[in-house]
Amino acid sequence: MTESTIQTTAATAALCDDFRSMMSGFPTGVAVIAAEDLDGTPWGMTCSSVCSVALDPPTLLVCLRDGSPTLQAVLASGEFTVNLLHEDAQGVAELFASGDPERFRVTPWERTADGAGPHLPRDAHTIADCTVALTQRMGDHVTVYGRVRDIRRPSGRPPLLYGLRQFAAWPAT
Ligand SMILES: Cc1cc2nc3c(=O)[nH]c(=O)nc-3n(C[C@H](O)[C@H](O)[C@H](O)COP(=O)(O)O)c2cc1C
């Protein structure tokens, strides 16, 4: 795993607020990024910064808050799971954004026979197992590039969406 650090200078609070507001106008899907630490304790956080990077080999990136225990578990294990949430999983998205230490006790999760996970099969429409390929520290976040090893689809349900600071369901056709 390679790591690089990009030097940055602090921005004004007003510009940071304006940037948040700008990005709220760019709707996304919603994922729970999850990993187990070296003790086998599961960690996970709600994340909208999931982006496709390359098709061959299949690679994606996620941007995780520096200091997040989920990020620590991802870096320690060198692996993580992307749980793409379906439209009925708003409660899970809110729980995994809350920092609640009980989040994995009240949410069904599992690991695969070959040790991948944590998977949230009740709440995800698609689950991708990734190996960390590269990390890049930028300002208050760390970008983690993940090589996708395996993709599962627990359900064909439409994705949960997030934009304008609210959750939404995929429009009915
Ligand atoms: C819809 C939504 C998307 C989010 N996306 C991100 C994200 O891409 N990166 C991030 O660091 N935090 C994101 N957050 C905030 C984290 O979920 C929140 O800070 C959480 O408590 C972090 O978990 P931790 O305890 O592992 O740090 C998002 C929150 C919501 C509600």
Supply the number of structural domains.
Answer: 1
Shape designation: globular
Tell me the series of helices and strands, N- to C-terminal: EHEEEEEHEHEEEE
Number of helices: 3
CATH architecture: Roll
List cofactors, ions and other ligands: flavin mononucleotide
CATH class label: Mainly Beta
Q: Which regions contain 5 or more consecutive residues with pLDDT less than 50?
A: none
Termini gap? 43 Å
Q: Residue share in helices? A: 10-25%
The structural class is alpha+beta
Determine Rg (CA atoms, Å).
16 Å
For the report, how would you describe the main beta sheet? 8 strands, mixed
Average pLDDT over all residues: 95
Primary descriptors:
single chain, 173 residues, alpha+beta, Pnp Oxidase, Chain A, eight-stranded mixed sheet, 3 helices, 16% helix, binds flavin mononucleotide, Flavin_Rdtase-like_dom, NADH-dep_flavin_reductase, oxidoreductase activity, oxidoreductase
